[in-house]
């Protein structure tokens, strides 16, 4: 393959670079959590690979008492999701809470709630679940004096394959600069249970949902292209010229552009001479 | 003090707290004492070691005119260098009389300010925005510590090979490279970040071809998710790494700089002696005229 020859491949997380990547991510969690004046995180554990990786990193960074996992199934969540989430909490010995969200989701979407309608119901329900989980996470954040740990990977953040103010919401995210393909490599090196690594990626918002079916391409294909477009800053035509599929390159490029709003703070109408995040510029770590 | 043509330099790889001058001064004082206990006479801290790096609008709050009584904020550093008879190179935000701000490094030796290097090359691309806040320095000076000539290049300065060319041809024996370099980029089969690899290759080349010691002091810690890569090291005039700190942890090491080795290397391979400055000048004049 042409791309391979040109060494334009997404770099692998392998046994050589793993120790430094691992240490860096653990330091990130330790230092940034401490700066917020707390020593704990809380995260939503779905049974999928992303939240499992984030959970392993957090438990290794903060110790088992520094992490609490919320497992928040809906009636249609796969049974294996709960089992896999439990495998993670058992392996790490961390505190966890199982909170079923079926009742409030169904109540909101029931016929009693007039005017709710059924247009786009599948996606709306999925978004509602993601935001319900976020809402519970932030309640536990206050209750447990813990920061909410993000579990979105770089692939889904770039593709916009997440719910704004839902699963995309967090205080800090250790895996947001790591592509899904690399998440698998990292998961193996972290010795995450095989059943979690081997199942097909799914948001599990409805039965049989599959990321790759919904997106229409594999993460592996998308990640190679996104690495060229984003990390290497190649124009789409350049990515095509070195061997990437043209239709897929443009499809992905459009998805990234269209979802830019999800990765930014809300727009603020500038009126004053110094406006938040426009020309009032400080780090979040501002002392 | 120099004994047997050896000077001891401490590389202080710290994690400054962004915007907390008071706390950072305390950290500096502790490390200076510890370094003195290990017989070091020169202590080198990273770029902007007293203030933190990604200050953004905080640059305005941090600026100090070191030539006025504002420098009183550093009185404990002046005092400790005088009491202990040591020299300290540390980074701060400098403000001049015209209210320009600089990414500067001072050298305070035995209670006296003997050098201020204002960073010349201010990266303003990718994640960097230094030119938005700082005014560039005008050149690369040299100064004397214990009879040895030093020059300070701050981070990006060293990426311009003309900077080290100027420093050694002005007479520098030891090039101090203080930095706040973010860790970035991974490669399969490579056990360090790509950015660290770039630094090590660059500094080895500078040390070897400019026949000098290079003292690289980089910071660690995180600022808004950006982590600094540490890996502070001494490169000897053969281009080899002599002392090296961990990539991502705080630490300090005291390096023995052997001036006999420098003498030996400069005699065997006299690249600096043979440098044709007139030729370079003529070529540069030609480039500027064209």
Can you walk through the features of this model?
The complex is a heterodimer of chains A (about 290) and B (about 290). Chain A is built from 13 helices and 4 strands. Chain A has about 290 residues and is mainly α. Chain A has a single domain, classed as Rossmann fold (3-Layer(aba) Sandwich). Chain B has about 290 residues and is of the alpha/beta class. Chain B contains 10 helices and 14 strands. Chain B has a single domain (about 5-290), classed as Carbon-nitrogen hydrolase (Nitrilase/N-carbamoyl-D-aminoacid amidohydrolase), CATH 3.60.110.10. The mean pLDDT of chain B is about 95. A 6-stranded mixed beta sheet of chain B has the order 5-4-3-2-1-14. A 6-stranded mixed beta sheet of chain B has the order 6-7-8-9-12-13. A two-stranded antiparallel sheet of chain B has the order 10-11. At the A-B interface, helix 2 of A face strand 10 of B.
**Backbone structural class of chain A:** mainly alpha
Question: Mind telling me the C-alpha Rg of chain A?
Answer: 20 Å
Q: Assign the CATH class of chain B.
A: Alpha Beta
What's the structural domain tally of chain B?
A: 1
How would a crystallographer describe the biggest sheet of chain A?
A: 4 strands, parallel
| The CATH H-level homologous superfamily of chain B | Carbon-nitrogen hydrolase
CATH superfamily of chain A: HUPs
Q: Could you say how many structural domains of chain A there are in total? A: 1
User: How are strands sequenced across the largest beta sheet of chain A?
Assistant: 3-2-1-4
Largest interface: A-B, 24 and 28 residues
Could you say what the CATH architecture of chain A is? 3-Layer(aba) Sandwich
Assigned CATH architecture of chain B: 4-Layer Sandwich
Quaternary assembly: heterodimer
- How many beta-strand runs of chain A? 4
Strand content of chain A: 5-15%
Terminal residue distance of chain A: 50 Å
Radius of gyration of chain B: 18 Å
Tell me the helix content of chain B: 25-40%
Tell me the strand order in the biggest sheet of chain B: 5-4-3-2-1-14
> What characteristic shape of chain A results from the CA principal axes?
globular
- Total number of β-strand segments of chain B? 14
């Amino acid at each position: 393959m042409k791309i391979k020859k040109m060494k334009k491949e997404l770099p692998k997380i392998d046994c050589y670079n793993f120790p430094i990547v691992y240490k860096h991510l653990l330091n990130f969690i330790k230092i940034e959590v401490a700066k917020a004046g707390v020593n704990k995180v809380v995260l939503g554990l779905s049974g999928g690979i992303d939240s499992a990786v984030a959970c392993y990193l957090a438990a290794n960074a903060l110790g088992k008492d520094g992490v609490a996992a919320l497992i928040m199934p809906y009636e249609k969540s796969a049974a294996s999701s709960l089992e896999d989430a439990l495998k993670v909490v058992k392996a790490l010995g961390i505190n966890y809470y199982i909170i079923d969200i079926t009742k409030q989701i169904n109540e909101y979407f029931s016929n009693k709630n007039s005017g709710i309608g059924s247009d786009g119901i599948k996606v709306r329900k999925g978004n509602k679940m993601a935001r319900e989980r976020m809402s519970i996470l932030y309640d536990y954040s206050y209750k447990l004096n813990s920061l909410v740990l993000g579990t979105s990977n770089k692939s889904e953040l770039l593709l916009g394959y997440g719910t704004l103010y839902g699963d995309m919401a967090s205080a800090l995210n250790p895996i947001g600069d790591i592509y899904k393909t690399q998440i698998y490599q990292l998961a193996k090196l972290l010795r995450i249970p095989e059943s979690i690594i081997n199942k097909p990626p799914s948001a599990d918002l409805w039965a049989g949902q599959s990321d790759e079916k919904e997106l229409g391409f594999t993460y592996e294909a998308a990640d190679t292209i996104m690495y060229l477009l984003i990390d290497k800053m190649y124009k789409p035509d350049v990515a095509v010229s070195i061997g990437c599929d043209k239709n897929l390159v443009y499809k992905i490029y459009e998805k990234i552009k269209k979802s830019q709003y999800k990765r930014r703070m809300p727009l603020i109408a500038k009126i004053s001479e110094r406006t938040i995040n426009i020309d009032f510029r400080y780090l979040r770590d501002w002392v | 003090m120099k004994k047997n043509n050896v000077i001891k330099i401490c590389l202080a790889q710290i994690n400054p707290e962004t915007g907390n001058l008071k706390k950072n001064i305390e950290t500096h004082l502790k490390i200076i004492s510890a370094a003195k206990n290990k017989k070091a006479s020169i202590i080198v801290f990273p770029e902007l070691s007293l203030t933190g790096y990604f200050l953004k609008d905080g640059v305005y709050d941090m600026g100090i005119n070191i030539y006025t009584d504002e420098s009183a904020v550093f009185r404990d550093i002046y005092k400790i260098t005088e009491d202990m008879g040591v020299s300290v190179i540390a980074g701060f935000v400098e403000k001049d009389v015209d209210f320009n701000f600089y990414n500067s490094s001072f050298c305070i030796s035995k209670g006296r300010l003997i050098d201020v290097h204002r960073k010349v090359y201010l990266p303003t691309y990718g994640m960097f925005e230094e030119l938005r806040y700082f005014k560039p320095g005008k050149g690369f000076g040299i100064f004397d510590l214990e009879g040895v000539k030093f020059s300070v290049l701050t981070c990006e300065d060293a990426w311009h090979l003309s900077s080290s060319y100027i420093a050694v041809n002005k007479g520098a024996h030891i090039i101090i490279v203080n930095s706040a370099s973010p860790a970035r980029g991974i490669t399969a089969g490579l056990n360090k970040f790509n950015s660290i690899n770039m630094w090590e290759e660059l500094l080895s080349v500078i040390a070897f071809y400019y026949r000098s010691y290079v003292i690289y002091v980089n910071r660690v810690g995180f600022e808004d998710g950006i982590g600094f890569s540490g890996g502070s090291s001494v490169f000897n005039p053969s281009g080899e790494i002599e002392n090296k700190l961990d990539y991502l942890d705080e630490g300090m090491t005291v390096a023995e700089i052997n001036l006999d080795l420098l003498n030996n290397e400069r005699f065997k391979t006299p690249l600096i002696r043979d440098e044709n400055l007139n030729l370079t000048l003529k070529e540069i004049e030609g480039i500027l005229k064209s």
